[in-house]
């Protein structure tokens, strides 16, 4: 089984179900063919293939994708077994994940039987459908084909095979999802970073203001969209629910050069190395120089591919959201939780370690904490803790949190229904 993620091929289809961009990786495909040669009996006897299955052409992918939409009702598919499901289809497996990890049946002029292409990670962005095919072993494909033909449905308790257990043993699936999402962001120009804004407004007394002490971090509310009329919102919600499974129609043209440049830098030869668009862009603009080489006693982390030179500064912002469930009953207490994230932008020379004090973790009743890979996570249980991290360049999310809030909401409101 592959211990890392490798991509055999990827395709981008427009809303007319035509392939507008494709990329195949011969190095990874050679590994697939070698695995098929080792399991030749499985390929010929169990899967009834004559020879090693090769990658289909763009026209075959487009035709297979159209057939799947007709068979499954939409690009995503049903996800669960219904009356319209047919044996051998994704919905026959009866697992909602088949709306995101799909299979296609391809057939060329020289073959009489269909060949199954699986697992294909499907990501829909605007009016484009992105298909990413990671490398798996032939016996994984055989297991999935067997699931598509069994009479029972769903992942029953005690079943010998389940799709969840199969995907859990395939780390390449996670990498394929990351590749699909990153390419989708490049297509739509949505390669953004967490917003870091210097605000002169005073602190609003949020949870992280007490946790971080007096290091000069202030909380800032998220921007709120302008209100719209009730009828318009209702109509938009209805149409959005009906059209949520179909790609949106947009006017942004496909920038093939940007996609090719990203693929050649982020995943040369089909193996993703660094999918951070900020890192890749910075390396292309600044390049590498002898001054970028760190001292011999320091190891340069993967999230900082080159060293910064210039005016030094470090900025923080905090985004917090309060969730309240109010029952207006004495026997049921109200529940108030607060969640948010700490964004950081560090422009520091060299590879310094930054100390980030956290005060009051015990009294704050923090339920969930997650940190950026650059942070050294402290042990929980102490009232005063210090988070040490070696920041990457550009904007990044340092930590995310969720905690119970001991304060009462400033405004309470309850509805009453009178008959």
From TrEMBL:
Keyword tags: Membrane, Protein transport, Transport
Is Membrane included in the keywords of this UniProt record? Answer: yes
Stored InterPro entries: AP2_Mu_C_sf, AP5M1, MHD
Against Gene3D superfamilies, the record matches this protein to: Mu homology domain, subdomain B
Q: Which GO terms describe its cellular component?
A: AP-type membrane coat adaptor complex; cytosol; late endosome; lysosome
Q: Which positions make up the signal peptide?
A: none
Q: Does the keyword Protein transport apply?
A: yes
Database matches in PROSITE patterns: MHD
Top-rank lineage group of the source organism: Eukaryota
Looking at the record, the residues that make up the MHD domain are 311-419
The subcellular location is:
Endomembrane system
Question: Taking the first listed entry, what is the main subcellular location of this protein, grouped into a coarse class?
Answer: membrane
- GO biological process assignments: endosomal transport; protein transport
Under Pfam families, the record lists: Adap_comp_sub
* Topology with respect to the bilayer: Peripheral membrane protein
Q: Give the family this protein belongs to, as stated in its UniProt record.
A: Belongs to the adaptor complexes medium subunit family.
Against PANTHER family, the record matches this protein to: AP-5 COMPLEX SUBUNIT MU-1
Stated name of the protein:
AP-5 complex subunit mu
Q: Which organism is it from?
A: Nicotiana tabacum
